[in-house]
Amino acid sequence: MPPPEISKRVLDAKLEACKFAFLKLSAVKTTRMKNYKQLRTLLMLKEISRRGADRDFLKDPENSVTRILCSVLKQVVSNSDRSLKSLRGFQYETLDDQEKQQVTRMIASVQGMGSRKYEPESVDHLEDMTEPVEMEIYLGNGDDSVGGDFGDIVLEPISWPLESQLNLEWVETLMGLINQFTWKNSVSEFPLILPHSVAFSLVECASQILDKEANCVKIDCCSENSRVIVVGDLHGQLHDLLKIFDQSGRPSQNQCFVFNGNYIGRGSWSLEVFLVLLAWKILMPENVILLRGSSETRISAEELDFLKEICDRYGEHGPMLYSKCIDCFKMLPLASVISNSVYTTHGGLFQSSRVQEDSVNPSLWLGSLDELDKIERRQAGENDDENITLNHVLWSCPWMADGLSESNYKGLLWGADCTETFLQQSNLKMIIRSHEGPDARADREDMGNMLSGYSIDHEVESGKLCTVFSASMFSQGSRNYENEGAYAVLEPHNFTEPRFVSYTVENVPRLHHQIISDGSSTQQQQMWENRTGHGFASLGISNPPSWTVPLPNDPSQILQLREPPQVFEGLPLPDTIQEPHKSNYNYLFRLISALKQEIQTRV
């Protein structure tokens, strides 16, 4: 056995090299990786560093080697959040399914690294380790010789915990699995990740919690370190929700989230958004407040094809899950009051039941918080239109004219004078509502356009009225608004001065049926078949017109195009097609041929 001083000198030299390696590893930008194997190698090296910290000799704070290594490891831990964000921003399109599963497992590993604290009683903070350098390195080819293989790791479906006791790790795993699923673009595989029994349990367990809450939830913020995040409409855009969590942090004892409704909508991932939020509600019922939006009604859900979305994922189990979601919608509270100062709701103000008795000045007869608490929201849902107050809460909108009046839909229109009256009578300082995005404000020149994700609609003596919308790059029909999403941050001591954080989430995965490629004849043919209900083949048309227009490579060839063909694609039609359909198809195919010839000539 060598003398202790020689052994220590050798260890010092080797661990000094480890210090340099750890420093570089913690500074790597994973989004610049050239391929998946490099990313895998990086995560393996970081996992090795984590395991190395468990060695017994590292527990001695007097060891100089220990101080160096622990300082490096502490920095790795402190940078785990940045590494996690980089991993979640990794471009998954080029990966196959197995590689995507491995990346998901790596994300969980980094989360585990961040949760460990390698802090001995005394650590020397080295000057050259305070700021990690930003660099890009090549970590080898990632083959088995580099130090191990993750090929034996299999991604298992998430299971419902015993006694329905969710923990943070379970919820984080759920979010990671669902995020990974969205990149697979195969909705039929969703039960392989989240079995229907787990989805049922999520909805049922959350419904029991929501059922016990008042119509207007009171949120008391006593701690000086506490803050509240208010989130607007998400409309099924899961990656906006994940972006908010990454930017603002997760719900915690010192950070409460209030969601103003419209979880389902025109995005690709309405069910996923709703299930993730329910999981957080179960985990932290006092710190995650889920309010009801205008989309969370049976009628709106039908208009948004929410049943179809669920059935696309769960097949024969879809109708049952849909029914449970509709019942859960009825349990969602309608409003919240934050620190006795800020009122949040989805739509806005509502009429008092006494308004019919006095028509002279209806703005003085706005509904009160006491009246709001008396609404029986749990029995609404089958006939939401019959609950006038509920409709007002979900559908009302502000405008610039004074007074309170019926809108052309289910809600009310109210002016700044009504905002002042409500704030004064309720002893509040601010209203934060949602419900309107850039589409709703496009034709309302008197109101903010919501392109930044928020607007200050009324400023009165008692306070303000704000609108927040959290679905970035929102699409309505064929129009894309290229708007930012936003959320409001309320902090002590003055919760009435919100800080709005705007963001944009681009290049997110969407379902195939929502993507139309300009140059894909296959997708356009599928779109045609979906709209007509059957394909040309079922009509006996074996040579339907193609949906592409060939163009000459050389512009000089344009004048040499041949005359319009005498034989048209799709013709002659089979005798099985009867009139007047036969004449219509004949005209259609000749028209398509003429249009293609016109495009060739003009281009």
TrEMBL record:
Keywords: Manganese, Metal-binding
Keyword set includes Nucleotide-binding: no
Keyword Manganese set for record: yes
Family matches, as Gene3D superfamilies: 3.60.21.10
Cofactors named for this entry: Mn(2+)
Residue ranges constituting the Serine/threonine specific protein phosphatases domain according to the UniProt record: 194-507
InterPro entries: Calcineurin-like_PHP (IPR004843), Metallo-depent_PP-like (IPR029052), PPP_phosphatase (IPR051134), Ser/Thr-sp_prot-phosphatase (IPR006186)
Domain of life: Eukaryota
GO molecular function, one term: metal ion binding
Name of the protein described by the UniProt record: Predicted protein
Organism per entry: Arabidopsis lyrata subsp. lyrata
